[in-house]
Amino acid sequence: DLDCIKRYPWELEFADKQTYEMCVEAVRRDGMLLEHVKFDELNLTKEQLYNLCLIAVKQDGLSLKFIKEQTKEICLEAVKQDGFALKFVKEQTEEI
User: Fold this and answer.
1) 57 near 67, Cβ under 8 Å?
2) Distance in angstroms (rounded) separating the CA atoms of residues 35 and 73
3) Cα–Cα distance measured from residue 56 to residue 63, given in angstroms and rounded to the nearest whole number
4) Residue 4: which pLDDT band, with cuts at 50, 70 and 90?
5) Nearest Cα to 23, choosing from 88, 1, 64, 45?
6) What is the spatial distance between Cα 37 and Cα 39, in angstroms, rounded to a whole number?
7) pLDDT tens digits, residue range 9-53?
8) Is pLDDT above 90 for 95?
9) For the segment 59-86, what is each residue's pLDDT rounded down to a tens digit?
10) Cα separations (Å) of 61 from 11, 16, 71, 82, 86?
11) How many domains does the chain have?
12) Is the pTM here over 0.70, yes or no?
């Protein structure tokens, strides 16, 4: 549940039923936990998906490697947080 994730964010991987709030809490603490988000079970809106990914890359730019649908904004934030995230940008532009 959410209280457990607040204390132990890495437990997200083992949660029977994830919620958007649980996932946000986990990636806010460790962006790399985006790897354990069960996107297929969550049924997120595009806005929720974008926000979750943005929170993750702002915390750890390397979490970009777990994002399938990358936007320019998400890529820029990831690279700003960690320059090494550039290697995970699918479509590099002059700006990125």
Assistant:
1) yes
2) 20
3) 6
4) very high
5) 1
6) 6
7) 999 999 999 999 999 999 999 999 999 999 999 999 999 999 999
8) no
9) 999 999 999 999 999 999 999 999 999 9
10) 21, 27, 14, 5, 9
11) 1
12) yes
What gap in Å lies between CA 52 and CA 43, rounded to an integer? 13
CA distances from 16 to 38, 44, 56, 59 (A): 10, 17, 21, 25
Report, as an integer, the average pLDDT of 84-95: 94
Domain contains 43: yes
Domain that holds residue 6: 2-88
**To which residue do tokens 């988000």 refer?**
37
- Entry field: residues in the chain: 96
Residue 93 lies in a domain: no
Structural domain includes residue 95: no
Residue with tokens 């790897």: 35
Is residue 94 one of the residues assigned to a domain? no
